[in-house]
Write a structure and sequence with these properties.
This protein has about 475 residues and is an alpha/beta fold. It is about 30% helix and about 15% strand.
């Protein structure tokens, strides 16, 4: 993959499988960069198998994995012919930790392989995968699985992805590789890491892999300059994401101030300067309210290679949203009732998180207050060092007494959402609880809804990702 051949349009990596393999494949076949979300794919894979994999897509991808024994292990554990019985809960998946079992590592590797394999199947377009730096404990296994499937581009934001270039270098040669993991209350001499040993994990020697392009998602030129100054941390390019983008947003620089509605206030210091990125000599794409043909041309005039667009594709018929939830979003947009809010509290990470205000979802603070606290998936929990030196994990979305007993600050609890379960529910894979209740979804979209609104004016019954690509490119026939 050459940087000079990367497309103008990057389809954003959204939610847990909202940027599904179907969406990424459609965008890639249209000649742009389709991206799958790499977050929580172990959960997604296991639940698709437990729902019977009715179209056989997952099993077809599993059959292509280079080590059949690994695929057979996961298939044998999770696959249910014909799917779960009504009301039957999904089996649990291992929660991420600093000491994952080989079985847990292989599930994560395989889940990322499956999503990328399916996105790349049947065409020669470019496919990327998006990760969050805040989710550190699974990153080596996620990236390795994606690379085994031939992923072309890795994108990462929500933190400082300084260690990813070297990780990708090592994984391309199947060498043991590690990235540091942040541990609260660790001593000055303590060092913790997530480590993968590919040969030991899979039990075979495989030929070298193609090293994917790495694009760091950043919110300002200060971080871009920091990453670019050293060869070891330098990405191959940047996505510069404004605070209006969906998902996790970077906090405002300096002291965080909330407005009268409780949303973080962003100022001039939070606006990235494209000229500073031009001087770095690395390609970059602009994101956050750039989802229109006019804004694509504006981005290019500022020196950008192109744009990253999320919300426009999230609302398309090819995204991973559950169909009934997508229709609810479209109906609300059609009547100008759809809005988003930068929620300073929802995410257990402490990062601001963009929440679409949709009835019947956890954007409703009343429903959120009645949510039973739990943390049974654990992708956003924080590692901390106990007084006895052992490592434990906590999450402000878990039961209050448990969080406080682990040293958590009670002030972090109000307003939190279990994003792992809520985002999984938004793609139709909601967990069923012992009392028969089903987890409620949460929807994340960017602030800029003008693009989806323009597309609905052209296609009142909904639009495809291919039609969205054609519209962004200014093509007259957006078939």
């Amino acid at each position: 993959m050459s940087l000079t051949t990367l497309p103008r349009i990057i389809q954003g990596g959204m939610g847990v499988a909202v940027s599904s393999w179907q969406l990424a494949r459609t965008v890639s076949r249209a000649g742009e960069l389709g991206v799958v979300s790499g977050t929580g794919l172990d959960i997604v894979l296991s639940r698709r198998l437990q729902d019977g994999d009715p179209d056989g897509d997952v099993r077809r991808a599993l059959a292509a994995f280079p080590v059949a024994e690994v695929a057979d292990e996961v298939l044998g554990h999770y696959f249910l012919e014909g799917g779960r019985a009504p009301g039957q809960p999904y089996l649990a998946t291992p929660r991420p930790s600093l000491s994952p079992t080989p079985r847990s590592q292989r599930l994560t590797v395989l889940a990322n392989f499956v999503e990328v394999f399916l996105a790349k199947e049947g065409h020669d377009g470019v496919v990327g995968v998006n990760y969050l730096e805040k989710i550190q404990m699974t990153t080596p296994y996620c990236a390795y699985g994606a690379m085994l499937a031939g992923v072309d581009v890795v994108l990462m934001g929500a933190g400082i992805p300084a260690h990813i270039p070297q990780l990708l270098d090592a994984l391309a040669e199947h060498r043991q590789a590690s990235i540091p993991v942040d541990v609260v209350d660790a001593g000055p001499d303590d060092a913790y890491a997530a480590t993968i040993d590919p040969a030991d994990l899979l039990g075979v020697e495989l030929p070298p892999l193609r090293r994917p392009v790495f694009l760091a998602i950043v919110a300002n030129h200060v971080l871009g300059q920091y990453l670019a100054r050293d060869e070891a941390t330098r990405p191959d390019g940047f996505v510069i994401e404004a605070p209006s983008a969906g998902g996790h947003n970077a906090p405002p620089r300096g002291k965080v101030v909330l407005d009268e509605t409780g949303q973080p206030v962003y100022g001039p210091r939070d606006v990235a300067d494209p000229e500073k990125f031009v001087t770095l000599g690395l390609p970059f794409w602009l994101a956050g309210s750039f989802g229109s043909p006019t804004r694509l041309l504006e981005a290019e005039a500022l020196g950008a290679r192109g744009i990253q667009v999320g919300t426009l594709f999230a609302m398309s018929q090819d995204s991973g949203f559950a169909p009934e939830l997508r229709q609810t979003l479209i109906d609300a947009l059609a009547t100008d009732e759809l809005a988003t809010r930068t929620d300073a509290l929802a995410s257990p990470t402490g990062f601001p998180f963009k929440v679409a205000q949709v009835a019947g979802t956890l954007s409703d603070l009343g429903l959120r207050d009645h949510r039973e606290p739990l943390c049974d998936l654990g992708h956003l929990r924080t590692a901390f060092r106990r007084e006895d030196g052992r490592i434990d994990y906590r999450c402000p979305a878990e039961p209050v007494a448990m969080f406080v007993r682990k040293g958590g600050d009670p002030a972090e609890i109000p307003g939190r959402v279990c994003l792992c379960n809520a985002l999984t529910a938004s793609i139709g894979l909601a967990q069923t609880r012992k009392d028969g209740s089903v987890d409620l979804p949460l929807v994340t979209l960017g602030d800029d809804l003008d693009g989806p609104r323009a597309m609905l004016a052209r296609h009142p019954q909904g639009y495809t990702a291919a039609q969205a690509v054609a519209w962004l490119r200014g093509e007259t026939a957006d078939a």
